[in-house]
Protein 1
Amino acid sequence: MKGFDHVIEPPFEEVFRQDHSLKGRWHSDWFRNSNPIVLELGCGKGEYTVSMAEKYPEKNFVGIDIKGARMWKGARESLQKNLANAAFLRTRIEFTGSFFSAGEVDEIWLTFPDPQLKKKREKKRLSGPLFLNLYRQYLKDGGIVHLKTDSRALYDYSLSVVEANSLPVVSSLTDLYGGLTGDPLLSIRTFYEEKFLSQGTPITYLAFRLPHEKEIISPEG
Ligand SMILES: C[S@@+](CC[C@H](N)C(=O)[O-])C[C@H]1O[C@@H](n2cnc3c(N)ncnc32)[C@H](O)[C@@H]1O
């Protein structure tokens, strides 16, 4: 990873309760263009980051995960494919507020996050109120959050967050491949997705807008 100059691996002290030097400067100092920035949070091997970067050269993509060994695969692939619009950031998602300034991010993808279904784990759910309020800090007003998951329970929970907060739904599918959307963006398959599909588990997809106006609250009270 150290040899990859499109991978950022900041030490903990650089981001804990302080801003990283790239915050507010991704367009000018990193991508050197003004194209929209899309994040894949918990990117694992980065299949979405790499495939989206290939399909959409007019957008910038940042894959974020804490596990370097997984990320290495996507980082190597994007280098081999010469994708100047793909970057990887190795950090905890909890620290993303140290990396991105208000309105700097256009869209967020959550690809097969750990469901964290126990009630006391709600704070760890990437589509729960705690994380959505973090994303509100840097996602454009009304920017889209996409969630792809094999977990029907996580999908149902996320939809209940959306409904409890009257967030505008862009798309909501309980069986993505049964639904035949034909959307090339939705046909990208991640490592975990292939695993669940081979077990016959339906893949769900939820996309919604995240306006800034109100703090996101839990549907569980
Ligand atoms: C189930 S895997 C999914 C990986 C990939 N998106 C896929 O679909 O194959 C969840 C990923 O989220 C990452 N992750 C979970 N919590 C995280 C956190 N708080 N900060 C950074 N990465 C996290 C894990 O390291 C793991 O790679």
Note: Residues 42-44, 65-67, 70, 92-94, 111-114, 190-193 surround S-adenosylmethionine (CB under 6 Å).
Protein 2
Amino acid sequence: MSSKIFVAGHRGMVGSAIVRQLQAQGHPADRIVFRTSAELDLTDQAAVFDFFASEQPDQVYLAAAKVGGIYANNTYPAEFIYKNLMIQANVIDSAFRNGVKKLLFLGSSCIYPKQVPQPMPEEALLTGPLEQTNEPYAIAKIAGIKLCESYNRQYGKSHGVDYRSVMPTNLYGPGDNYHPENSHVIPALIRRFHEAKVANQPNLAIWGTGAPRREFLYVDDMAAACLHVMNLDKALYDQNTKPMLSHINVGCGYDVTIRELAEIIARVIGYQGDMVFDTSKPDGTPRKLMDSSRLNALGWRARVNLQVGLEEAYSDFLNTHVMQP
Ligand SMILES: NC(=O)c1ccc[n+]([C@@H]2O[C@H](COP(=O)([O-])OP(=O)(O)OC[C@H]3O[C@@H](n4cnc5c(N)ncnc54)[C@H](OP(=O)(O)O)[C@@H]3O)[C@@H](O)[C@H]2O)c1
């Protein structure tokens, strides 16, 4: 019989893509279990334990987390560190106590120090101070990696525990958050270009010089990478990781300038006006790119190019935010 898989965070952008990917790869729908946060609050230790005890999943994708942009991270630092630590600790420990051998934890590129070589290799972890704005969130994510590694080290041989973690770059695609004030760069630009097109606006202001370089990965590629890493042969995984440096970066391998990104989005949406770069606004760090060579050596590469992914993302935006009554 197929493995019973718990996808934690199945309504989120990444969790929903993981469910789609499992189904696309033929995993039976009735062997995937999930709960909304209203049905099962993963910060509630006893409830999480009871869930694992009654459902007895074989595998877990841990894509549930409290996530947000700079504003939310700065305003609610206590919630970001507390909720993420609790979700991870409860899910990982309950999984272990209920015999789950395979688990994949999702982190983020913000685990790396502020000053770091580009592209950022896995070895950069814990080599310097973190970006202040999301430090509490990043510390929780680092703790998640260390939880997985510690359970492997203590219970790997005795109990067959094999808990892995992946660190995605910036993601975009169906299920993204298009909130006008609190969204990442791609959904924010999609909304703004769309609104500018509908209003026949002659120009659109974009913050900064347009020169910073960023990497973006389509969320279905991310989900495919999650399944790839989860299902990798253990000997191969062990050869390419270390017991205390086991996380795996997931990126598409190239970055684009914000100007290039905006030009592609304008083309995809069909916005004919001009882009005006507001150079009085801050640019942020000049470059942020993951070194994904570890994952490439493990046999995985991104497939969806940026233009195609943005076409899909725009179509999702139209379906979910514009066509709705
Ligand atoms: N989006 C990105 O660009 C990006 C980049 C790098 C890493 N990641 C990582 O990928 C993971 C998923 O991100 P996402 O973008 O998919 O986030 P998301 O869209 O906000 O989804 C997060 C999910 O977590 C669930 N959740 C939150 N608190 C919970 C709780 N207390 N109990 C149970 N469930 C809870 C929510 O469930 P309900 O809907 O039921 O409330 C929600 O569906 C996160 O670990 C994030 O750090 C994302």
Note: The longest strand covers residues 162-168.
